[in-house]
């Protein structure tokens, strides 16, 4: 028991930079108190002391503002940060190293008996105000964004955001680096193309950059093929794009190029 309590205290230090010392954590962290009271209530519950278990659970709710049904199964090093308003249902199951923030609900979507609450595997993080509703599994290492409403399974390592919850697909890091380099050549910051910004416009920009890269590669291959056939064709160097082509840009990679007045007149 004391070993588990020490683990819980250490988990606070690992996940909350505001924690200063063990005495402060022991006395001033209601999330920790709620976990310990739940473990007592759960021990009574599995020994069929149902009413007493519910009374201990109710006491924990009154003291901490965190409601955990005594039938819920919780793993090691469970961390509740802030915690006020958290609700965890009877058939919920949480693995090791799970983190919940304030206002989270692990609830059900039916009144039928049996499994009706979610299962959170090891290392899951659920952001403030999120609702995870139903008898499905959130895979190990997954993240639920703040205020998301998730009613379907979340794969391991994925991130779910929004209402209803949708999975953010993480792009390949190598492909992301190519897109960023190509965007910088064109003189703008592809700010929205990371996996943390699931913007449809950003996805479209990313696909356009992929297309431009493919076009450039095809042109290079065509020039190489022509030269191998004896052509004396020499491709011209592509001009750099001026700042005026991207008015929202804050910077332009490479030296600025003078704008030819004649070309401006033709454009107008």
Can you describe what's shown?
The protein has helices at residues 2-15, 22-28, 30-46, 50-64, 173-185, 200-228, 261-267, and strands spanning 67-68, 73-74, 79-81, 87-88, 93-94, 99-101, 105-107, 119-120, 125-126, 131-133, 137-138, 143-144, 149-150, 159-161, 166-168. The protein is elongated and about 90 Å long. The protein has 268 residues and is α/β, with parallel strands linked by helices. The chain folds into two domains: 2-168, 3 Solenoid (UDP N-Acetylglucosamine Acyltransferase, domain 1); 173-256, no CATH class. The longest helix is centred in the C-terminal third of the chain and has 29 residues, at 200-228. A six-stranded mixed β-sheet has the order 3-6-9-12-14-15. It has a five-stranded parallel β-sheet with strand order 1-4-7-10-13. The chain contains seven helices and 15 strands.
């Amino acid at each position: 028991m004391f070993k588990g309590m020490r683990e819980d205290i250490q988990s606070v230090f690992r996940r909350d930079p505001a924690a200063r010392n063990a005495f402060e954590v022991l006395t001033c962290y209601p999330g920790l108190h709620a976990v310990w009271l739940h473990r007592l209530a759960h021990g009574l519950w599995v020994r069929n002391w149902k009413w007493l278990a519910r009374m201990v659970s109710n006491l924990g709710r009154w003291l901490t503002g965190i409601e955990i049904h005594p039938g819920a199964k919780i793993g090691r090093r469970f961390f509740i940060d802030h915690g006020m308003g958290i609700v965890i249902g009877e058939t919920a199951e949480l693995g090791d190293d799970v983190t919940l923030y304030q206002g989270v609900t692990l609830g059900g979507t039916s009144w039928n008996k049996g499994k009706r609450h979610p299962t959170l595997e090891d290392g899951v993080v659920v952001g403030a105000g999120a609702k995870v509703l139903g008898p499905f599994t959130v895979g190990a290492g997954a993240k639920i964004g703040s205020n998301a409403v998730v009613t379907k399974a979340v794969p391991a390592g994925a991130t779910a955001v929004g209402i209803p919850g949708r999975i953010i697909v993480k792009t390949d890091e190598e492909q992301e680096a190519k897109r960023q380099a190509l965007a910088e050549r064109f003189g703008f910051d592809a700010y929205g193309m990371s996996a943390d910004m699931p913007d449809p416009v950003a996805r479209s920009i990313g696909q356009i950059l992929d297309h431009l890269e493919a076009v450039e590669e095809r042109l290079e291959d065509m020039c190489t093929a022509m030269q191998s056939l004896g052509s004396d064709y020499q491709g011209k160097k592509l001009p750099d794009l001026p700042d005026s082509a991207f008015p929202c840009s804050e910077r332009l990679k490479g030296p600025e190029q003078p704008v030819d007045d004649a070309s401006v007149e033709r454009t107008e």
